[in-house]
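Why predict the complex rather than its parts? Because the way molecules touch one another can change local conformation, and only a joint prediction can capture that. The input here totals 655 residues.
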Amino acid sequence: MAPDARPPVAFLKGVTKTYGEGAAKVHALRGVDLTVREGEFVAIMGPSGSGKSTLLHILGCMDVPSEGDVEIDGVAVPRQSDSERTRLRSERIGFVFQSFHLLRDLTVRENLELPQVYLRRKEGKRLPTPEELIARVRLPAALLDRHPTQISGGEAQRVAIARALANSPSLLLGDEPTGNLDTTNSDAVMRIFDHLSKEGATIVLVTHNPEVAEHAQRVVRVGDGRIVREERKGPSEPERPASTTGGAA
Amino acid sequence: MTSRAALAVRYMLRQKGRTAFVVMTYVAAVGVTLLLTSAVVGNEQSFIAEVNNLAINWIYVQPSVPPVYPLTVADANAIATQVPHITAVAPILWTEAHFNGWTGADSNTTLTGSTSGLTSVFNFDVVRGSSNLTDPAGPNAPLPLVVGYNLWTSHDLSVGQLLTAVVVNIVPGGNPAPMNVNLVVEGLLAPRGSVGQINLDQAAIVPVSGLLNLSGQTTLTYIFASADSSSNVQAASQDIQNLLFQRHHGTLDFSVNNQQSEVQFVLQQIGQFQTIIQLVEMTLLMLSAFSIFVVMTMAVKDRRREIGVLRALGAERSDVMFQFLLEAGIMSVVGMAVGVGLGTVAVRFLKQTGSGFYAALVTNPVDLGLYFVELLLVLWGVGFVFSLLPAYQASRLEAVEALREM
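Output of the joint prediction:
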């Protein structure tokens, strides 16, 4: 198979994460190698406690590995500086949460503006307006002036996706984005992710749901802190087993 | 409104009880402080104005009770002739008189025995007649009477008009029985207004020697004198004290005060009052600071998820800290603004409905000067300092920890 020429958006090498000390020491991740390339749609699956959320937090620069290297968009994620990691997150990463987590004191419009408020370097970056963002998730502009308590769960998650796109991120991360939705709304949300993927967005979703994982081009299965299996979709990208180190690139 | 301000304001509106608690403590602190400060500043200004308005560069001598040696007209004459820089002297003897035919508040009028120097010392203008207060030639001749504006306009008096009154001794040791006295209006005075409790327009002045004879009193109530300039008041006071000490055979049975010492005394009294006020202000200040600390700490505890989301969306620790300080700042500023507003309304109401102490209140906070501005800044600053710790705690919250709680 010809090597993928697309540049990596996320690159993890030998990533280990441990919590606690001594007998209470817990290994959340054990030497994970993972590369997510530009435009890829990756689903991370695994049972509870497998380390998939920790992996997502490290990808999202919200947590740092105990060992190993992480690069986002070609930039090494610093371990020491919270401020630099926050800036990296602010400029290059968009988050979608299971429970939407729109701020209820703000209108939809203000929620969509929030990531741009915290964006330090805006030069040379054309940031989308709330109207453009709401259109991308196929919601009417009339919702912009409502509060999150005045919209449905499906609409709230689509607004949350729009908010994650507000800083034009290089990497869109989703933590069980359909976990709190019924089938109809789940389908609608996944169609949005499909559409964004077709537009070229790089997406990594953590999910329990195989139907959600069906939408991804690549499924990474995590177990006991390791990548245990990787599946690629499409005739040119057949399924293959994970490497002996547990990583997949 | 920016998202940060909207977040702050809407959270405060959602948490109405807590917001009201903080705002009310600030309202109380600022309102009470405004009231107390306006009372202190207003009464200080009012009292100093009264002291300065009483007479011109004035000095007064008051006998001790009872005096070893009476304070006499001869003492007053000695001051007038022997003390440098004295421009006028007014011996004062107060007694009470019941004027025939006068009713109401004027039926008991304070009769002042003095000399024509009184109009100079107290800066009276004579509208009609003269202020000549010499004793009459004959034993039964009426005493000349110079009348203040309110009295002569109320009773339609004219120069030369004859009056009769009963003089009642008000000092122990005088004549026990009331004495009938005939009076003739000698002069009518221009309006002069009130100074403190003394309404100068109620003055009824007769020759001091004649009144001493009538009342049977031996000592003057006061001797008032005017110096030629404010810079000579202290020196002239000292000279008067030395002179009277000599005349009273080395006995200090009198006290000498003046315009400046009176102002100093008032400022000293107000200074003590201010210490009490500052204690009250300090208590209210600490209550405000405590309220903002408690409410902000509760807010941080309640909003861990929100903080996690903000951090996930790219908010730096400083952004989170700023968010909480912004909320604390808005609450304190709103509380202070409402406090100034309500305090001003309360002060104006008290000034309009009250008298004396209340009438002197300063109604415009701007007129309270730097002291009040400093106090507002201190109040805001202490609130800011007390909200720093909760804001800092919020900023130290790890995004992952906060998100795990979801």
